[in-house]
């Protein structure tokens, strides 16, 4: 783990939606960050502007991909970068999804909005070792079809051992949309899994996480088999400043991925 930013170069920029880009980053010199696990995050520094936490959306041997939505000064600066630009990276930080604990089980991945980005490495890892797992369900919710991330790649997330059961829903359909409309939790009715032999991974807006976790509990999953990623104001990323504290948990150190058996009580009191 690096506490001092390591210089990385932008070697690829892919526009995902009107306000979201994926940056491919490779080390600008000999120094590189330690390997990331799916679900972990880096502190990404836009020189002269500031830094923000961003989960990895793809992990390569000598490169990282971060998918970033422009919602503030730092994220806007990062989204405006072009190939050849430089950023600083610190990390890896936080806990991962721990896909290895789902070996031999059915998998349910539920995402909302940009929440699919932190779960993309898990989906790719599960597809790469398809025979190690049971049925793979990918349930994706988006505000509109135009806001949907990785739409083209979802159609290719398959291998010789069978594709994931992928379902997409939108909140506000356009005239050209012929798919599901409504909350992502409604897609659970069509998912294929055996609750007592299933691990679920959930990332998205907090209200969506609550609703999904409660629905999965109702269907028979145990709380420790529902892993969720929680977002808080991470600044130091080393567990010292306390800005990301939620109850007795420091999200940068003890999260962002934790079991619902632990997260449920933490989210019982809503932030003002």
Number of helices in the DSSP assignment: 6
The helix-strand sequence is: EEEEEHEEHEHEEEHEEEHEH
Strand content is 25-35%
As a whole number of angstroms, the C-alpha radius of gyration is 18 Å
List the uncertain runs: none
State the major sheet: 7 strands, mixed
How much helicity do the residues have?
10-25%
Which strand order spans the largest sheet, edge to edge or round the barrel? 10-9-8-7-11-12-15
Structural class: alpha/beta
Taken from the alpha-carbon principal axes, the silhouette is globular
Mean pLDDT: 92
Number of β-strand runs: 15
Kindly report how far apart the N and C termini lie. Answer: 33 Å
Key traits:
272 residues, alpha/beta, seven-stranded mixed beta sheet, six-stranded antiparallel β-barrel, 6 helices, 15 strands, globular
Describe the structure.
With 272 residues, the protein is α/β, with parallel strands linked by helices. The chain has six helices and 15 strands. It has helices at 73-79, 116-128, 151-154, 206-218, 251-254, 260-266; strands at residues 2-17, 20-27, 41-46, 50-59, 64-69, 86-93, 106-112, 136-142, 165-170, 180-181, 198-203, 226-229, 245-246, 249-250, 257-259. β13 (245-246) and β14 (249-250) form a beta hairpin. The longest helix has 13 residues, at 116-128. The mean pLDDT is 92.
Describe, in short, the structure shown:
It contains six helices and 15 strands. The chain is of the alpha/beta class and 272 residues long.
